[in-house]
Design goal:
Layout (H helix, E strand, L loop, with lengths): L1 H7 L1 H11 L10 E7 L4 H15 L5 E8 L5 H10 L6 E5 L3 H7 L23 E2 L2 E2 L2 E7 L1 E5 H6 L11 H15 L2 E5 L11 H4 L19 H15 L18 E6 L14 E4 L11 E9 L6 H11 L2 H7 L13 H7 L5 H14 L1 E2 L6 H12 L9 H16 L2
Parallel strand pairs: 1-2, 1-3, 8-9, 11-12
Antiparallel strand pairs: 3-11, 4-5, 6-11, 7-9, 7-10
Helix pairs in contact: 1-14, 2-4, 2-5, 12-13, 14-15
Protein name: Sugar ABC transporter substrate-binding protein
Organism: Nonomuraea maheshkhaliensis
Keywords: Signal
Length: 412
């Protein structure tokens, strides 16, 4: 109950925080900036710290820049609690699913002079704008692709998949891997029967959506979603193409034939002992599609160091540093969204892979589901979908139940 109440209060806490007072009085003397992030990856932190050190060489008014890693499982709730409790960071890494709450609440300072809009790919800024103003820099716009263990597929008698392959072919290959090797066939990374929004990488092939474009109408009970989830349910429980609930498999340790994830995970293949490839998502009945995971960096309006934080964000997001960050987080700058540019910071990936999965994916992709009050919505959807993850589930009935539970929230 306590978790549910915290989730339900997320949007309200942000609005209350934003309306309670404006920016705190500007701090005097050298500032220590703090930026909350969700990654604890040593390589990510090393890069961020090197950029911060370079910035401080020419900015004596900033004594230190600290990157504060918060657990991803409760990242947004912890961040919101910090802001409401008077312990707000100066900058925050914001996930796409909470973007509507942060942008709409007034908790973020507008980034009027950060970057010219024409320097950013239009598809990357939609979540982070309100009334023409940018409230967070979309530093990571990363389409999902499929990493393939070519050795496991060959062992299972399957040909290497290529762009344009279908979901039927993907499930057939995944089932063969499981049957021949006993290892997992296809893993939807970070789903684990909890992170249901990652299933957008599957249902997008059927043209399904969690809710309508205006966010007011539930889409879970619509025919496209029922068909997509019926296909997925069969792939899990009948075909054994995906690991069942309670089973985990790490593709990067050689425990699965394929995984759906983003290019930031490619670094885990640096010492891979198997041959691998990266290809676009399979096509579905509605054809080819792309799904994007996104994150922005915003300046917390209440921070007494807001001006200095915005200046550091301007430095962090300049073309040179965006190119460096591009090895993990595909940048929104159009000048950097070329296979040649991305290949410089992603040596493990081929230009063809970057073009097909990242560049083409950004131009045509849809961002994972996001909505005001996302925390409460996400928990409610997850609770309803729990009924789906058993062999005898009634897919249509379960999805109708999802809509019955969340439609009142969407209609607010």
């Amino acid at each position: 109950m306590r978790i549910t109440m915290a989730a339900a209060g997320l949007a309200g806490l942000l609005v209350l925080t934003a309306c309670g007072s404006g920016s705190e009085p500007a701090a005097t003397g050298p500032a220590t900036l703090r930026m909350t992030i969700w990654t604890g990856n040593a390589e990510h932190l090393s890069l961020l710290n090197s950029i911060a050190d370079e910035y401080r060489k020419t900015h004596q008014d900033v004594a230190a820049i600290k990157f504060d890693t918060l657990p991803i499982e409760n990242y947004t709730t912890t961040l919101t609690t910090q802001i409401a409790g008077g312990n707000a960071p100066d900058l925050a890494w914001i996930l796409e699913n909470s973007a509507p709450d942060f942008v709409g609440s007034g908790a973020l300072a507008p980034l009027d002079n950060l970057v010219q809009p024409e320097q950013l790919a239009p598809a990357t800024t939609k979540l982070w704008q309100q009334e023409g103003k940018l409230y967070a820099y979309p530093f990571s716009t990363s389409p999902f692709g499929v990493f393939v263990n070519l050795d496991l597929l060959k062992q299972a008698g399957q040909k290497p998949p290529k762009a344009g392959w279908t979901w039927e072919q993907a499930v057939e290959a995944a089932a063969a891997v499981n049957k021949e090797s006993g290892k997992a066939g296809l893993v939807v990374r970070d789903f684990d029967y909890k992170g249901w929004d990652n299933l957008a990488t599957v249902w997008g092939g059927w043209g399904a959506e969690a809710w309508s474009e205006d966010g007011k109408t539930c889409g879970f009970a619509k025919p496209e979603m029922v068909e997509a989830m019926t296909f997925l349910h069969k792939a899990i429980f009948t075909d054994k193409a995906l690991p069942a609930p309670g089973t985990t498999a790490d593709f990067f340790a050689g425990e699965a034939g394929m995984t759906i994830t983003q290019i930031s995970r490619a670094s885990l293949l640096k010492d891979a002992t198997f041959k691998w490839d990266l290809i676009p998502l399979p096509t579905g009945p509605k054809g080819a599609y792309s799904v994007i995971g996104q994150a922005g960096i915003g300046v917390i309006k209440k921070s007494p160091n807001a001006a200095k934080a915005a200046d550091f964000l301007s430095f962090l997001s300049n073309p040179d540093n965006s190119a460096k960050l591009g090895q993990y987080f595909p940048p929104p700058r159009t000048q950097l969204l070329t296979a040649e540019s991305l290949a410089k910071s992603n040596p493990l990936l081929k230009p063809e892979q970057l073009q097909q999965v990242v560049i083409d994916g950004i131009s045509a992709g849809r961002v994972k589901p996001s909505h005001a009050g996302q925390a409460e919505l996400a928990q409610t959807v997850r609770a309803q979908l729990d009924q789906l993850w058993q062999p005898s589930a009634d897919v249509a009935k379960t999805l109708t139940g999802v809509c019955a539970a969340i439609q009142p929230m969407l209609a607010k």
